Predict the structure.
Amino acid sequence: MNCVLNPEYDEVSRKLQKKTVIARKPHICGECGAEINPGTRYELYKGVYDGSIFTCKTCLDCVSIRECFFQNGISQFGTLLDDVYEHIVYELAGEVDSRCIIPLTDTAKKRIFAYIQEAWERQ
């Protein structure tokens, strides 16, 4: 698929724990900054990167984007949307394989379609 990002990382984070949980209190998505409200499912990821332990809470919309576009892992959290935007707009010129869009959540699809639209408008 032409949508998968295969960046060359010096180091990929080492997963200590990754699970989907239900929020008991409000959280902020570490990728898009959206509020994760109590009762909402999100991904809780604990890992080690560059010798430091970290935790990232990610909304399921961003998780769906990560799973489609970063199938070989990521080195850091917090740059997902910027990385995918750059990839779609500048590298793919908006030509994204439909297999990369179908598994996304509805909210994630809207975000990716906006990136595709911007790429087309730039041409």
